[in-house]
Design brief:
345 residues, alpha+beta, 6-stranded mixed β-sheet, globular, transferase, EC 2.7.-.-, IPK, kinase
Length: 345
């Protein structure tokens, strides 16, 4: 395969295929991340053609760099395939289907997703939830997640930053704070902590002005719209999901107000633990989003080193605790039913 000079001139287009499945060679991808020895993210090389299957329909997808492949889990695949999630599409990375990739572990399913990252982004990954939940958690994990949440802002407001980058004018570089830094943030310091991303003016002056003020207002409006959609979804639980905010770093360094405002992207991501269980909408996720919106509104009022307080919404966590326990029992029952099959195979 020949070398490609970026950016590619090819654009997305889709064609219906007659073939049921195509297995893609790992050599056709750039490996960008690994988890537990498994490849988690892959980027296709420029002239790579991908066959993705979505809801039983195979299609050819010809990508430029606006695509990434993510190791599929059953829950995340089900989430993207569910008809109920169609109303969320404008808030999600575009989903093209699943592709088979031949790795050292065999043929593995990968989600074919829009690569939402900008060419030179600063990012803020906001982990939602008062407790991090999953159906596959053990009893020990169940307890440890509650201890972990209690030590962070998650238990207090339903969110924390799980990775944040910003342009630092003093050093002249992009500074990265990892998820462990986010775990150390206290509730009283939330506005200042997130202000590193949402206010990247030279000297980080307050109150918010210009493009950054407009970006916060746009963020509040987007979250409000997302709340409306989630409130209409019956039984869907967004366990482990994040809200990803992105701005163009070059526009910030150039102090190009129009480009800063235009570059703002907000996407809901990470559905490996999402489940359909229970009744009604996900009140835990809704409260988290309400609190995030309230924090951003408080950021608009910040004028001094003292962070403005904001009202906090709290759901009845007993409801989702019970739902999680039910899902954990279901996962264990399924594992016990499948284990004899795996032993024979």
């Amino acid at each position: 395969m020949g070398q490609c000079s970026w950016p590619c001139v090819c654009n997305w287009r889709e064609e219906t295929l007659m073939e049921d499945e195509v297995i893609h060679d790992l050599d056709s991808f750039e490996c960008t991340d690994t988890v537990g020895g498994h490849l988690r993210f892959l980027k296709p090389k420029c002239d790579m053609v991908i066959t993705a299957v979505r809801r039983g329909q195979a299609q050819v997808v010809r990508p430029d760099r606006q695509i990434i492949l993510k190791k599929a889990t059953a829950n995340e695949k089900a989430f993207y395939e569910a008809e109920e999630c169609a109303s969320l599409e404008s808030f999600l990375p575009m989903y093209y289907g699943c592709a088979l990739v031949c790795t050292e572990f065999g043929n593995e399913d990968y989600l074919v997703l829009e690569d939402v990252a900008l060419s030179n982004p600063v990012q803020c990954d906001v982990k939602l939830g008062f407790v991090q939940r999953a159906a596959h958690h053990s009893d020990a994990k169940w307890k440890s997640m509650r201890v972990k949440a209690a030590a962070t802002t998650s238990a207090k407001v339903g969110f924390r930053h799980c990775g944040l980058t910003y342009c630092d004018w003093k050093s002249g570089i992009q500074v990265k704070e990892d998820k462990y830094a986010g775990q150390l943030v206290q509730a009283a310091d939330l506005v200042s902590a997130f202000g590193k991303f949402f206010n990247q003016e030279p000297g980080r002056t307050w109150p918010l002005q210009g493009a950054f003020r407009k970006s916060v207002l746009k963020s509040i409006s987007t979250i409000h719209a997302l709340e409306g959609v989630i409130a209409s979804l019956d039984g869907l639980r967004f366990w482990g999901a994040s809200l990803l905010f992105m701005l163009d770093a070059e526009a910030i360094w150039n102090q190009d107000a129009a480009c800063i405002e235009e570059s703002l992207k907000i996407k809901l991501i990470d559905f490996g633990n999402a489940v359909f269980i229970g009744d009604g909408p996900d009140k835990e996720a809704l409260c988290a989003l309400t609190n995030l919106k309230s924090m951003l509104a408080a950021m608009l009022e910040k004028t001094t080193e003292v962070d403005p307080a904001f009202e906090v919404c709290r759901p009845d966590l007993c409801v989702q605790d019970a739902e999680q326990l039910k899902s954990m029992e279901g996962a264990r029952m399924l594992a016990s039913l499948l284990s004899p099959i795996h032993e024979k195979s």
